[in-house]
Fold:
Amino acid sequence: MNFLNSLIGGISLGSIYAIIALGYTMVYGIAKMLNFAHGDVIMVGGYVCYLAMFNLGLPAIPAILIAMAVCTVLGIVIEGLAYRPLRQASSLAVLITAIGVSYFLQNAALLIWGSNPKVFTSVINIPAKSLFDGQLVIKGESFVTVSVCIIIMIGLTLFTRYTRAGKAMRAVAEDKGAAQLMGINVNFTISLTFAIGSGLAAIAGVLYCSAYPILTPTLGSIPGIKSFIAAVLGGIGSIPGAMLGGILLGVIEILSRAYISMELSDAIVFGVLIIVLLVKPTGLLGKKIREKV
Amino acid sequence: MKKIVALLLVLVMACALFAACGEKKSEGSQSDKPAGEVKPFVIGGIGPLTGGAATYGNAAKNGAEIAVEEINALKGDVQFTLYYEDDEHDPEKSLNAYNTLKDKGLQILLGTVTTSPCIEVSAQANADRIFELTPSASSTDVLGGFEDESGNITIARKDNVFQMCFTDPNQGIASAEYIKTNNIGTKVAVIYKNDDAYSTGIYQKFISQAAKVGLEVVSITTFTADTATDFSVQLADAKNNGADLVFLPIYFEPASLILAQANSMGYEPAFFGVDGMDGILTMKNFDVSLAEGVFLLTPFSADAEDEQTKNFVSTYQSKFGEIPNQFAADGYDTVYALYNAIKKGNLTSDMTNAELCEKLIGIFTSADFKFDGLTGSGVTWATTGEVSKAPKAVVIKDGVYVGYNG
Structure:
């Protein structure tokens, strides 16, 4: 029973990682760049939702929609200002810029919203379900995060497979130059990717803050990094991979905390990254890419 | 075009940088310029004015400001100029803040507010021979000269450092005894932050005292700064081991998460916090019903009936719009303790720092120096730097602290 409780805790933490990892993996798969500022977009999403709910007094759903809209715009602006000028630059330059954007967002949030922690009230009103005389408790947040995660994954897979814009994304992912020759607007496609990724980040932010209801300007950095590991574990660039990697990582984290060592749980999580990179660098569901010479 | 965009970006970044600097500077606020020819003592405080522990720093700062204003308004021959610097509860930033204060002519140090930064800063202040009275850094490592578990003294006594608050061992011991004598819990779980000197310090003393008084500890779990979000494993461990009381020697920010998560998993033990729990009720948008029945240790309660407390609470409320917590009271008392000591020794602000330091050490450790403040009356200091003050437990009822008498 204890094990089941831990497992459920792990799955619900993991599904938040999974939603964040979906954003990472979309951007990497299509633009071939690591957007380390993704974790901080989550933080912005959380704050915007908080402000909409408690300063404007809106109900949960419009507040989430506003958070999504703000994050979507933020994603497009970040891409346009910080990454688009570096389209031809080396990947190292883009990586450093991404870290810069991440710090910029954190410090901007510190200036705008101050550093006193704010307490978020869960947007989810589903009561916890207890089974077996209260020995097994499943929180409402867990239900919602897991189902939202599955819905987003299916939606994204269908989107990239069947819609025009989705096909354009896959084309850009495969070969930017060739896609442009075929008449695909590469810049627009990449902007769209950022928009979707950042919109998802807003949802992840709201869910994360519902599960762990404290808002601080640095709340995105640790889940951001862990979700990046999740994306690598699942195979970066693969949408089902991000989901699988996220949930696996959440389960590994909680189980190692419960059964191996509370102090070492983060070391184990980051150890997973090293093992994956050594044994199967493409990740669990990643495609093997043959470099043409 | 690209260059223009790049330039704009650089400008924006630069502006943000300066904006940050500007704000930092304004935080080192200067209280009322004293009138007359008396040269004021330059006293400096350091504490977290931003960041997760900002509640403590701001409270101590506000309390100190009120005391300084009151003293300067007397227009006596002891006047203060107070500077306060932010350290974000970070030892390195705290040292920088300390150096900033020294550049401003620091003579006596009121701080720092939190433990980990204070351990670093007090070592430096000791080397510089600047007298230090901390309002709330409660670890014995702040003072130095205490034995660790294996009986070694790893940090030598810093003879210039004194505390306004009770020490961590004191809190750990008092907590264990309180729980035992008042029978608040029989099976105890402890969740502490093992990368924090304050939390581990209290935890160690609590455990050894619990063993002495025969309190059964059934679950001991930890977290760190990086894992301070999900407490499901720690709470499950406490629950499965049948703990009916969870002892939380931690700050209120993670504690609020623990309360929320315990509530959502339907686990309802008693919660017992220490001085770090003070401040939980002032968190924005915090659901106070979660803290119903939570115990915490404090030497100060804002609903006390004596004249001094009433005046302080009303001044604080009209000035800052909230009810002062023990950190505010400690900050206030720190300034007054210094004031009394300076009066007693007829010290003047043109003495050198080393001279002031030696004289103040002498006064604070002398047997006839007794201080009556908000956080205790007839308070004396030992040569170890400890204050003779007993921790008092209060319990939260309907969003306010209520004295607990078994």
